């Protein structure tokens, strides 16, 4: 699995170009020049940066990837914050190819204003019930789970994603959480120890239950 997280390069466009082309060469070699019975997955986070990249080679990379990866037992996952990045008149040809050739689509909470505008422009994309449900999705940090619509070809279903307190701490993008981990790292803690302390700070009761569960199962394994 290859994961691309491009957020750290947004203020360094010249470096972004160099990194982008190096990654494209590497990914294409791994995706198309390895045995077809080997499963491959390429995850692109903050995908709007790549989808909107003004370069023909990048567009060809996206279009080719989403159209041919399945023949090589491969898959692409592209994550972005707004459905408009994929499906609108402003979207690039690469973005529209990614959207059109994706068998699986996951729609999470959208900006209320942007989603309402999108539905006015593209009233046939979602059914009235779907528009209403997506518009009522709550913030994950308030309700401790993420709601999402899963679309697989012509089938749709509703889901909630719950994650453990360690995962919530590890993937948190909140400023105070980031600074907490950075401070612990300066104090000499490893990244694992820093995340563990953040999880205790944010979700003490859950972490206590998790540790008790781990201790119980460790005893069970020792007896077995």
From TrEMBL:
Taxonomy, superkingdom: Bacteria
Record's keyword annotation contains Ligase: no
Gene: traC
SUPFAM superfamilies registered for this protein in UniProt: P-loop containing nucleoside triphosphate hydrolases
Protein name as catalogued: TraC domain protein
The UniProt record lists the keyword Transcription: no
InterPro entries: F-pilin_assembly_TraC (IPR053155), P-loop_NTPase (IPR027417), P-loop_TraG (IPR043964)
Organism of derivation: Shigella flexneri 4c
Key words of the record: Membrane, Plasmid, Transmembrane, Transmembrane helix
Transmembrane segments: 12-29
Domain TraG P-loop: 1-120
């Amino acid at each position: 699995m290859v994961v691309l997280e491009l957020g750290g390069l947004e203020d360094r466009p010249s470096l972004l170009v160099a990194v982008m082309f190096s990654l494209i060469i590497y990914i294409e070699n791994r995706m198309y020049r390895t045995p077809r019975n080997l499963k491959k997955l390429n995850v692109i986070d903050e995908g709007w940066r790549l989808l909107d990249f003004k370069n023909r080679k990048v567009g060809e990379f996206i279009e080719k990837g989403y159209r041919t990866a399945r023949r090589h037992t491969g898959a692409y996952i592209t994550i972005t914050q707004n459905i408009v990045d994929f499906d609108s008149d402003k979207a690039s040809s690469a973005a529209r190819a990614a959207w059109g050739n994706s068998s699986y689509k996951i729609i999470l909470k959208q900006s209320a204003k942007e989603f309402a505008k999108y539905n006015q422009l593209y009233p046939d994309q979602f059914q009235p019930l779907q528009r209403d449900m997506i518009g009522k999705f709550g913030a994950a940090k308030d309700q401790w789970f993420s709601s999402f619509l899963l679309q697989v070809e012509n089938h749709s279903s509703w889901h909630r994603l719950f994650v453990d307190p360690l995962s919530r701490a590890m993937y948190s993008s909140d400023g105070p959480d980031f600074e907490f981990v950075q401070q612990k790292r300066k104090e000499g803690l490893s990244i694992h120890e820093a995340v563990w302390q953040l999880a205790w700070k944010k979700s003490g009761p859950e972490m206590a239950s998790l540790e008790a569960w781990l201790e119980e199962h460790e005893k069970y394994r020792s007896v077995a």
